[in-house]
Amino acid sequence: MDDYKKISEVGRGAHSVCWLCKRKNDIFRRKVVIKTMDLEGLTQEKQNAIINEVTLLKRLHHPHIIGYYESFKIEKSFSIVMEYAEGGTVDKMIAERGGIKFLESIVLNYFTQVVFANKLGNYLKNGIKECRCIYPKSFRK
Fold first, then answer.
1. Domain residue limits, the chain
2. Residues marked as binding for ATP?
3. Each residue's pLDDT tens digit, 93-102
4. 117-132 burial, b for 16+ CB within 10 Å, e for fewer?
5. How far apart are CA 26 and CA 114, in angstroms?
6. Where is the binding site, in residues?
7. H-state helical runs in 8-60
8. Is the pLDDT of residue 5 over 90?
9. Is the four-CA dihedral 60, 65, 67, 72 of positive or negative sign?
10. CATH architecture of 4-83
11. Mean per-residue pLDDT, 56-69
């Protein structure tokens, strides 16, 4: 974690926190998300699930799935460094529109991407929800 500077918290789950960060020595000043999971108190089965998630992320390379950069363990926590999608989550985008509906073509585009990403290996463990679908800033319309 010493290689990264935390900017802000972007999400939180039952056993994890996601941070928006920048690599300290990156000349391109790219932002990344670091998902840090507390391993303390987790069963061996849940810890194995985390390792499986990392193994899967390392293998997946698809334009509709967030990219994996690296992972590391510090004491009783495990962190995954991933690509940052500046656009945010679909539920955030819906809320920001204040009730203004999307064009059918945009909805179809989003839906198609989710289906293709899921078809890539049927890896969604928690189902499809608008809060789990993220998009790049260029998708705002």
1. 4-83, 88-139
2. 35
3. 888 888 888 8
4. beeeeeeeeeeeeeee
5. 31
6. 35
7. 44-59
8. yes
9. negative
10. 2-Layer Sandwich (3.30)
11. 81
